[in-house]
Amino acid sequence: MAPYDTHATLAHADASTCTASREEQMHTRFGTLTIKPEHKLEMPKGPFGFAGYTQFALADVPNQAASQFRILQSLEDASVSFIVLPIAADNGWIDAKDFQAACQSYCFDPNTSGLLLIATMRRDANGQVQTTVNMKAPIVLDTAHQLARQVVFTGEGYSIQHPLEL
């Protein structure tokens, strides 16, 4: 199994919730994103460095070549967004006991939770895009309750700039 999960999204809200809410369009630095009600989530403490932002949504990346990534878009400020890589709990990159401990610390059910790795894309001297992900401080996502929290793993095996081979 690939360490990343291209289908990791929030659990769908029940049908009565979805009919009451409609998709929204949001103009961002990535273009116009479609925000689905079932992909909205709350980060009570916000991502590190962005504590004032607590309402987010996961949206598809407009570029089909990067379809394994998602955009974690602030619903409070169109200029605040992160490219993230959804990964399954059994990804082989994050130790299962660290994932379990993170879920336990936030009272998240590990069976309905996953991880988002914040990605950074840079061009090297040759113009090639180099992608790294932050495995040291992933976002734990409770899909059942549409909640997310960023954690910091203390183990030395996690890098903040883990190279990603695409």
Task: Describe the protein's architecture and organization.
It is a single chain. This protein has 166 residues and is mainly beta. The protein has a single domain (15-164), classed as BH3618-like, CATH 2.30.290. It is built from two helices and ten strands. Strands 3, 4, 5, 6, 7, 8, 9 and 10 form an eight-stranded antiparallel beta sheet that branches. A hairpin with a 2-residue loop joins strand 1 (24-28) and strand 2 (31-35). The two termini are 15 Å apart. Keywords: Bacterial flagellum biogenesis, Cytoplasm, Translation regulation. This is Flagellar assembly factor FliW. InterPro entries: Flagellar_assembly_factor_FliW, Flagellar_assmbl_FliW_dom_sf. It holds the Pfam family FliW.
CATH class annotation = Mainly Beta
Proportion in helices:
under 10%
- Give me the Rg, rounded: 16 Å
Determine the mean pLDDT: 85
Report the strand count. Answer: 10
Q: How would a crystallographer describe the biggest sheet?
A: 8 strands, antiparallel
Q: Treating each run of at least 4 consecutive H or I residues as one helix, how many helices?
A: 2
- Stretches where pLDDT is under 50 for at least 5 consecutive residues are 1-20
CATH topology, anyone?
Answer: BH3618-like
